């Protein structure tokens, strides 16, 4: 799984939080203006994220248009699975995790497991 650095995460947050359409380098740079990043820095980060498969790009006139290759939830789910792989016992880690979530979160997990057992997919 690809681990994102702070700047990569900030760029991905712009893409994830934006509407489903693509974003130019200028769009992302403007969204991150409080960081004082150069346009070329944002362009480099987006290019690297494209190389890692985190973003997809297509030509939009003379510029590239970028969008996240997968939703944020898919990325976070993969991080969670990768963390489980680090555990000595996946079962023990899952039990500890399940006991640490709120009542509402536990209900979401129960519902997802129930849907999966019934043949539905989330």
Written description of the protein model:
The structure is a single chain. The chain is mainly alpha-helical and 122 residues long. It folds into 2 domains: 63 residues, Winged helix-like DNA-binding domain superfamily/Winged helix DNA-binding domain (Arc Repressor Mutant, subunit A, Orthogonal Bundle); 46 residues. Helices cover 60% and strands 10% of the residues. It contains 6 helices and 2 strands. The chain has a two-stranded antiparallel sheet with strand order 1-2. α2 crosses α3. It is elongated and about 50 Å long. The two termini are 21 Å apart. This is Transcriptional regulator. Pfam families: Penicillinase_R (PF03965). GO terms for molecular function: DNA binding. Belongs to the BlaI transcriptional regulatory family. Keywords: DNA-binding, Transcription, Transcription regulation.
**Distance linking N and C termini:** 21 Å
Shape: elongated
Helix content: 55-70%
Provide the residue-averaged pLDDT.
90
The CATH superfamily of the largest domain bears the name: Winged helix-like DNA-binding domain superfamily/Winged helix DNA-binding domain
CATH class of the largest domain: Mainly Alpha
Q: Strand order, main sheet: write it out.
A: 1-2
Unreliable stretches, pLDDT < 50, 5 or more residues? none
User: What Rg do the Cα atoms give?
Assistant: 18 Å
| Sheet with most strands | 2 strands, antiparallel
- H/E element string? HHHEEHHH
The number of domains is 2
Helix tally equals 6
Proportion of residues in β-strands: 5-15%
- Write down the CATH topology of the largest domain: Arc Repressor Mutant, subunit A
């Amino acid at each position: 799984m690809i681990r994102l650095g702070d700047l990569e995460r900030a760029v991905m947050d712009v893409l994830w939080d934006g509407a489903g359409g693509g974003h130019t380098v200028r769009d992302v740079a403007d969204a991150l203006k409080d960081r004082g990043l150069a346009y070329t820095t944002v362009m480099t980060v987006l290019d690297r994220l494209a190389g890692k498969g985190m973003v997809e790009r297509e030509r939009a006139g003379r510029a590239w248009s970028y969008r996240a290759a997968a939703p944020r939830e898919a990325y976070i789910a993969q991080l969670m699975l990768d963390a489980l792989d680090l555990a000595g016992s996946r079962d023990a880690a899952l039990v500890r995790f399940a006991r640490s979530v709120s009542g509402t979160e536990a209900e979401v997990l129960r519902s997802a497991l129930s849907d999966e057992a019934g043949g539905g997919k989330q």
